[in-house]
Amino acid sequence: MTIGTAVKERILELCQKRGITINKLGTLSGVTQSTINNITSGRNSSTTITTIKKLCDGLDISIIDFFNADVFQTLEQEIK
Hints:
This protein is mainly α. Helix content is 61%, strand content 0%. It has helices spanning 3-18, 22-29, 33-41, 49-59, 63-67. The protein has one domain: 434 Repressor (Amino-terminal Domain). Helix 2 (22-29) packs across helix 4 (49-59).
């Protein structure tokens, strides 16, 4: 699994756990719905840490909480 896929899965997991839509996450975080849609559809596989931080702020979690998930434990090496 790549980091882009892991970020996508984590965002979807957190939205599902909180019972919110991508649209609601955009409202809470100040990140446009189109940006979040690009991340969660896989069109954007290199999300910036700034965007992730904004999403975390909207979800009221820390970046550490965001990355402290099983999905990030089995990442493939990006440089081959």
